[in-house]
Amino acid sequence: MKEATDFAKGITGFLSEYLPHERNLSKNTISSYRDTFLLFIGFMKERKGVVVNKLTFSNLTRDNVLEFLKWIMDERHCGAATRNYRIAAIHAFVRYLQYREIGRMEEWQKILSIKALKTEKKSLNYLTPEGTKLLLKQPDTRTATGRRHLAMLSLMYDTAARVQEVADLTVGSLRIASRPYTARIVGKGCKARIVPLMDNQVEILRSYLEENHLMEPHCMTRPLFPNRKGHKITRYGIGYILDTYIALARKENPYLIPESFSPHCLRHSRAMDLLQVGVHIVNIRDILGHASIQTTDLYARADSMAKREALEKAYENMAPKTDREWEKDKGLLDWLKDL
Description:
Elements lengths: L5 H17 L4 H22 L13 H13 L5 H18 L7 H8 L16 H8 L7 H16 L3 H5 L6 E2 L6 E5 L5 E5 L2 H13 L23 H18 L10 H14 L4 H8 L4 H10 L1 H11 L10 H4 L3 H7 L1
Antiparallel strand pairs: 1-2, 2-3
């Protein structure tokens, strides 16, 4: 058996020890970082002729990283945001190596000097309350599948959960036996937050759990929304379900449903609704699971209704009032004729 290269040893320690244990990052984040290095390994083989068992730290250079980033944009048609995510993963790996391979510090510093590209800030896509009602009206509650989908989508909206957070929920994540009703959601960085549940949502969830025999104590660790095989549903599965009902809702009323709508937009919708009914932005931050209030503040900046109301409250007419000359005369037509 051939001895592992320094690159192989470094990647193994980074992904299996440093990220999960020292940084406490979630499995999903680690998987995303892993994907970056799978792409880099593929690039080195395709463009540089360096197979994985020959790949060493000597190949991890600023020039190769820049070529890799250009390759994913030109050949794989990735956008600037994806390119930035890839370089962020490489930067994290290089910062890890700075304390373990200090003999290559100069090259690590060169790689860390690679800047992220500026990306265009997109406007928030979200549903109005009328749009949300229209969406949640689409599942056919006469069927078990429709009732399951309603429970999933309404909970996703009510808790403003990320799509992966919904996929990760277990039956034991819910506390609906007595008040206060809550859901325990585990988000980025394995950080848990407790989100209150409303009475209507709890009624939907209880019906769903009873129908699917999930109220027994031995079911606490089971996925809350399993797929057909009984395994945890994937985020792609949730996205497919949402897309189905978004298409139906758009067909019924295209004015209430944005042309582009992803599962994350349902999270935006809940945040905007909470903001517009007067919930303090700090409480919205805690419900969303944001680490910083600055992240949550984007909803306040996007809320044109709140901006208009604030302006109307503060508005004072500074311009002098002027009488229109034609109002002093017999009428508009006479004034126009004499003009």
